Amino acid sequence: MADQDDLPPAEGAGDVPAPRTPWFDRGKQWLSWAAQRLDRVLRGLRGCKQRLSHMVHRLRQRTSWRLTRPQRRLGQALLVGIGVAGAILLVRWAGLFTSAQYRAADYLYDREGDPGTDILIVAIDEETLQALGDWPLSFDPYVQLLEQLRDARVVGFDVLLPDSGPEGNVQTPALLDAARRAGTVVVPIATLELIHPEFPGELYSAGRTVRTFPALLNVAAAAGSVNQVPDGDGTLRRVPLLVEAGGGEVWEAFALRVLRLWLGLHAASTASLEGDRVVIADGDEIKFQVRTDVHGAVLVNFVGRPNTFPTYSMIEVLEGRVPASTFADKIVLVGVMNALTEMDLHQTPVSSHRMSGTEFQANVIHTLLNHRPLVQEGELGVTAAVVLLALASALALSQLGAALGAVLTVLLALGYFVFTSARFSAGVLPNVLFPYATIFITYAAVTAARFASERVERGRVTDVFGRFVSPRVRNAIVALALEDPGLVRPGGRQMELSVLFADIRGFTTISENLPPQEVVGVLNQYLDSMEEEVFRQGGTLDKYTGDGMMVLFGAPLEQADHAERAVRAALGMRRAAAEVSGCLGAANCSFAYGIGIATGTAVVGHIGSQRRLDYTAIGDTVNLASRLEGIAPPGTILVNQTTYEAVREVAFVKGLDPVVVKGKVELVPVYEVLGMRDENDAVRGKEPADEGA
User: Fold this and answer.
1) Which pLDDT tens digit goes with each residue over 153-171?
2) Which of 230, 398, 526, 576 is the most exposed place for a label (fewest CB within 10 A)?
3) What is the DSSP letter of 523?
4) What pLDDT shows up at residue 292?
């Protein structure tokens, strides 16, 4: 049943109807009920928040605070690696740095390759134009050239002649006859506007077209598209092997038409796009196929820089300076090249100098002829490379310093260079910009995160210990805390150490005889001198106890000789107190310390409430040191049995009668330190023979 408090007030009960409440009173009742329910919900949420906060606090105490420095670095590096990979992939998916992506992989292309001797170029170069006249040339030189190339297997005539010249051009019949008799001439067709496809499986399509004039087109062995697809940076890297010209007509690329004649596939059916391949088939039999993208464009695997293919000047061929046998059974391309005219020049990934369209077609033919097309690396490959490089680099860097990390980063970049070169040789064009960016950005991010983390940690350690230890010890503690963060986290650990308590004898009486300002000044002077002696021996000033102090030796830094350090510090404090008193000169300002030292085990760490934590030590050893200080006469240093055993070989120590101390049932052996054996500060009249057994 529902709690009545949870229900809105009823309108009435029993047989007698309740008087009707005005609508505004009724509204107030409902608002009051709703406010009560909301208050219950808010109280419940606050309770959940407190319980969750308590759980998180307990979880941190049990887990994260116990992480070592390598573990913390590993976790931090993992987060940095994930963050870097995520950011870089977001940038990639946003389509940024497109031009840089294309150019970043240009170093993979071969710039000094061997084109072989199957493909030759007859260049309409500057020498030819100087000899035959300005562009465009008349048809006569082409007729003579075709006669010289009669033994070539294929002639790729990369010169677009959209009309036959002036009406009634007497040279036209001779050109048509030469092309017909050769039977190996491939002429170009082109579109002035190449429309990019939107969906996989669609071909590039032609807008306005420009064709070789019909009569020559009819007598030529084949015609092919000379259009290219510039990438986002304006560089030519790919060619569509099939172009949809409308009306069901599909153009094959100029290079593919040349290849057909070379392979004797002229009679085979038109090539078609099947998935990621362009296929030439004769019925059901596949005669030739080449890897492309999903739109039928092939990535050209360039042989080298411009002027790599064997090239002959057209005027040299016409004048007979090049034997006709040179072109026998070869693929010969004819086109404008190495001329002062700026036409048909293109930017390529293999050189900063532009390449002629004819030599570009030679590279396309060479790619198809030698089965060397490239395939663009897929999205999955790029994503995997970025993620793996980010995580591997970050995790490796987490275990190294900045200098070794830089060396590792360079080696990783070199290794990735070798990897991408091998993939390129296997026919894959990788996207290298973002993987390389991942390597170097991860190094920068991990280094920055480590620097920031260590700076925070140094600040925390300095804040905790900076006032209580010497700078040298503080720096050592910082280094230790970076390795073991538990040093500055709440909690404690059991350690063997020596605890020193010191207190000024008679300070209350002195303070009653001096003005307050002088009391504070004198006390500060004494405490400064005492603190200096503590720091000289690497002690940790735990706290001031009014006009006294508590000092730890062997914590937080472990010190094998902590007992000896405590004794030397006590002797130094006794000397410093005498020196300060001598400098003041007034009898009523003469101070003497009573000092107690105990060696043993204690729980050391940050102890206190969640609001206030102090680094200190607790345990029986601490209590015993305090009791020894309480019974020490002015100027006397009392130590326990364990301290005596630790320093008996290096100090003059006199045994005293056992004493009763608060909290102990049995008598406690007590010893007085007189001086160090390597110093001349033994109490006058006390010789080594006076030491206690």
Assistant:
1) 999 999 999 888 777 788 8
2) 230
3) H
4) 92
Residue 428: Cβ within 10 Å count: 17
Q: Give the type of residue at 635.
A: G
| 302, amino acid identity | F
Residue 161 vs residues 138, 212, 251: alpha-carbon distances, Å = 11, 5, 18
> Residue 72 and residue 489: Cα distance in Å, rounded?
14
Q: What is the DSSP string of 163-225?
A: S-SSTT-TTHHHHHHHHHHH--EEEEEEES-EEPPSSTTPPEEESSEEE--HHHHHHSSEEEE
- Dist. CA 149–CA 122, nearest whole Å: 10
CB within 8 Å of 230: residues ≥ 6 apart: 236, 346
Quick check: 487 pLDDT over 80?
no
- Number of neighbouring beta carbons within 10 Å of residue 527: 17
Query: What three-state secondary structure class fits 266?
Result: coil
Query: For residue 413, what are the CA distances in angstroms to 74, 350, 392, 442, 495?
Result: 21, 22, 12, 12, 47
SS3 content of the chain, % helix, strand, coil (to 5): 45, 25, 30
Answer yes or no: is pLDDT of 692 > 80: no
Please state, in angstroms and rounded to a whole number, the distance separating the CA atoms of residues 662 and 398.
52
- Helices 433-465 and 379-397: crossing angle, nearest 10°? 30
pLDDT digits (tens, 9 = 90+) for 268-317: 677 899 988 999 888 778 889 999 999 999 999 999 999 999 999 999 99
The larger pLDDT score, comparing residue 671 to residue 488, is at 671
Cβ density class 586-603: b for 16+ within 10 Å, e for less: eeebbbbbbbbbbbbebb
